[in-house]
Amino acid sequence: MTTYTTDLRSLQVDYAGxxxxxxxxxxxxxxxxxxxxxxxxxRRSWAVARxxxxxxxxxxTVDEQAEALLLKTGAVTVRIERRAPQLGFxxxxxxxxxxxxxxxxxxxxxxxxAPDERFYGFGQRMGLLEKTGQRLVNWTTDPARAHGSxxxxxxxxxxxxxxxxxxxxxxxxxxxxxxxxxxVGCAQPGVLQMSADGGELDYYVAYGPSPAEVLQRWRELLxxxxxxxxxxxxxxxxxxxYRCAEDFLHLAEQFRARRLxxxxxxxxxxxxxxxxxxxxxxxxxxxxxxxxxxxxxAGFRAVTIIDxxxxxxxxxxxxxxxxxxxxxxxxxxxxxxxxxxxxxDAVFADFxxxxxxxxxxxxxRVLTEAGVSGVWNDMNEPVVFDKPFSEGGGGVGTxxxxxxxxxxxxxxxxxxxxxxFGLQMARASYEGLRRLLGDERPFVLTRxxxxxxxxWSACWMGDNNSWWEHLEAALPQLCNMGLxxxxxxxxxxxxxxxxxxxxxxxRWIQVGALMPFCRNHSAxxxxxxxxWVFGERVESIYREYLNLRYRLxxxxxxxxxxxxxxxxxxxxxxxxxxxxxxxTVHLHDEVLLGPSLLAxxxxxxGQTHRAVYLPAxxxxxxxxxxRFAGPAHVLAYAPLERMPLYVRAGAIIPLGPxxxxxxxxxxxxLTLLVAPGEGDFTLYEDDGRTxxxxxxxxxLTRYTLRYTGNELTLRASPREGRYAPPSRTVVVxxxxxxxxxxxxxxxxxxxxxx
Length: 754
Ligand code: MIG
Fold this sequence. Notes:
The radius of gyration is 26 Å and the shape is globular. By secondary structure, the chain is of the alpha+beta class. A nine-stranded parallel sheet has the order 33-32-30-25-21-20-19-35-34. Strands 1-2-3-4-18-15-14-11 form an eight-stranded antiparallel sheet. A six-stranded antiparallel sheet has the order 36-37-38-41-39-40. Strand 28 (about 405) and strand 29 (about 410-415) form a beta hairpin. The protein is built from 13 helices and 49 strands. Helix 2 packs parallel to helix 3 and helix 5 (about 355-365) crosses helix 8 (about 420-435). It binds ligand MIG. Ligand MIG binds near residues 240, 305, 378, 379 and 447. The site of ligand MIG has 11 residues, from loops.
């Protein structure tokens, strides 16, 4: 006999033993849990930012039918079968989605794939944009150096996907941290299977109907990205191989002398003393504090790498302290687990425990006292090698799955916490920096992570190669990260492994300049790829695209703010704004930066032309001002100097002056680049550096553009918020011709353009 009960937020169905729970966390957000033996496991809150009880109760009704219970909110109906634990969703027009094709069993559910249904997200993946036909594993792994489209698992595990059909988008978050698998019509066409190795069948369904609304739900559930410091949006220069203080001073000189904008240098593992984390090598970096203050004076910030492995060395304070406080992970046998990583014999902190995170975060004082502004967390899948480096390192593995982890009242094994190791390490790092840096906003970069990692860190995509194929793989990879709720992402520009050519680097920076995280990084055993190594032509292309990025900063910074507020990705596949256009379904080689700027990069050597798809509406060529009416395919001319770039009609793109680094000059003049048409844009500003914005020191200016066919009117609304931007001139520039300069005015104005 099936019985059911309801409370304020959920409906529970008892199938004479097995139990199903459907929580209503809003009109469009649901959580489904299944307990085959009728007992729900105590809730672990490691991944979600908000527990069920923290959502305002949403009203719903239950309609009892002979075969099913119909749980209805205003927007969605959940149909729950009475004969067996099986359910499905429908929108207000009765269109079904996310429907079980058979009863749930254990930790597995199988869903119908609709004939025109497409799948995106799934966190970090190789291959192209859409994922039908793939088997995707959620298990954080260092896949070593040859990322191919056959990889089933990578550094980040983010069990979040977005489903799209014309007029209908919904998302699923599989709330299970064990190794899990999405089989998207691979084992059986037309069936999506979601299963895990342990824990419970527990997933959330977010109904759109637009992709943007799904991302909003994930922001509520999985948490918001904090607003990064503005300098983190600048260009970062890195190389595994910058070995001593002089290398960085030389780099600083080169960047400034060559007028290549840059804000950040990354210090890879060579700055440490014998790969001991939280130390400096005294010979090669005799005075890190004065080195970094020199760099700061020239407008560069320092970011240092930290690995999770702590060298097992009784003369090393971090090791002694960790042992004394029992902070390191122990095996099933009760002994501290050892593994080989960079410092050879190493032990690993248990970041799942709050006291361990607090300790680790505090250790970063060694870095912040030297002037370090941000921390880069590497190897936190975590990686453990078979053999010491002195014997070649061997294969890549991880901690024993039965190793013990977690706080005393939630103790479990590595098998359940493996996927969270990187996320918890990044969290320790962010929270520590938050305490150590006073009012300065921290920057954390992590290689591994889980759903929700955006709350603490930016992510880069690990060890790609200097291959055209990896340049091509970057956009779909980053777009799918954005659709999984992680907006602050980038790949190593120029490629990490193998040797870049000048042409590859030029093409890479063109699109790299639009990546939320913009860092040139390479491995010590590869050809160098600083912007100048390939000669004048490539260097000036590099410079031109960095200038573009720095000019776009007011736009970019507003997109970061929007991402923090609404969960919207910064870099967007075209389907994000044109979900009903079938041309966008597989379009992996074009991208939108925010709502208005469409880039169609060149991804192959020797190419000087490419087809560009422009969706409905009018588009203006960034370079020539030429107007195109979409939807249309156009042939773009793209010599090495040029990446095809288009502005959507009605766009208002705020641009700043050219800069050598983000804090070089105030935003004056502010150029509003407008593309004839109707639209609006709200510009966000604050000091770019501190948490004063949390205390009301921010401002918004809303610009609206009206177009009658021959007259273009731009209106600025009175400024909202307490932050007063520096006094400045506003230059309004019309794509395709015409420019007007006028004083900025907090009261707003109306300008009629030629
Ligand atoms: O085993 O720190 O992905 O960015 O330069 C290699 C050295 C360890 C892997 C990272 C890469 C970094 C490198 N690290």
